[in-house]
Specification:
Largest sheet: 2 strands, antiparallel
Shape: elongated
Strand content: under 5%
Mean pLDDT: 74
Order of helices and strands: HEEHHEEHHHHHH
Radius of gyration: 23 Å
Number of strands: 4
Distance between the termini: 20 Å
Helix content: 55-70%
Strand order of the largest sheet: 1-2
Structural class: mainly alpha
Low-confidence stretches: 16-34, 95-103
Oligomer: single chain
Number of helices: 9
């Protein structure tokens, strides 16, 4: 994963490479910063000479990066869905009775317990707006990293919450932070940054 500042440097390096390639290959077109081939086997986009260019990363590093981003995108919806499944068991009485499975039973109505799930769902949508804005300003890597750390922390908090207000606060904040990989469109952005056009579609599917 790369920052926006580094992306601009790589783009400049690619631009120089592309214009040089265009002088040597008159059948190629240089359009929107991409080296577009005319069925001559030229990769698109054309990697620069910079070893830090994501297009020059090792295959294992590219796959690992995509796997992490995809897992984070999956966990946001999965965590929200599990909250709905445990709604009725959590609403059982008596208050704060812990059974052998470790499930907390708040002794509240299903509607009240569902407030935590609704808040989580809302923040999955709202958090994406902030994640996209922060990623544009600070770069994708630091925003993804710290949001992922916060998502893990709030998930652990909700698992160990001793009261329903504490549990609800943890669930709401978890929705805000866990949506980073979805809201900021990390997977498409990372595919564009690290894979050539011919290799993007199978991985995006």
């Amino acid at each position: 994963m790369i920052t926006e500042k580094h992306t601009s440097k790589v783009d400049i390096a690619r631009s120089k490479t592309l214009h040089a390639a265009a002088d040597d290959h008159p059948l190629e077109e240089v359009s929107a910063g991409l080296n577009v081939s005319k069925d001559d086997g030229q990769v698109t986009p054309q990697p620069s000479a910079d070893p830090n260019d994501p297009l020059n990363w090792a295959q294992s590093k590219k796959n690992l990066t995509l796997l992490i981003i995809s897992a984070m995108a999956f966990l946001a919806d999965y965590g929200s869905a599990t909250g709905a499944v445990t709604l009725i068991p959590q609403a059982k009485k008596p208050l704060l009775l812990t059974n052998r499975c470790g499930d907390r039973e708040w002794g509240l109505s299903e509607d009240t317990v569902n407030h935590a799930n609704v808040g989580n769902l809302f923040m999955i949508g709202a958090g994406g707006v902030f994640a996209a804005a922060f990623a544009a300003f600070f770069g994708r890597l630091p925003v993804f990293f710290w949001f992922a750390v916060a998502a893990f922390t709030t998930a652990a908090w909700s698992a160990g919450a001793g009261s329903f207000p504490s549990f609800m606060a943890a669930r709401i904040l978890n929705g805000f932070f866990s949506t980073v990989s979805q809201g900021a469109s990390y997977a498409p952005a990372e595919l564009i940054s690290t894979w050539t056009r011919a290799k993007r579609m199978p991985r995006l599917a």
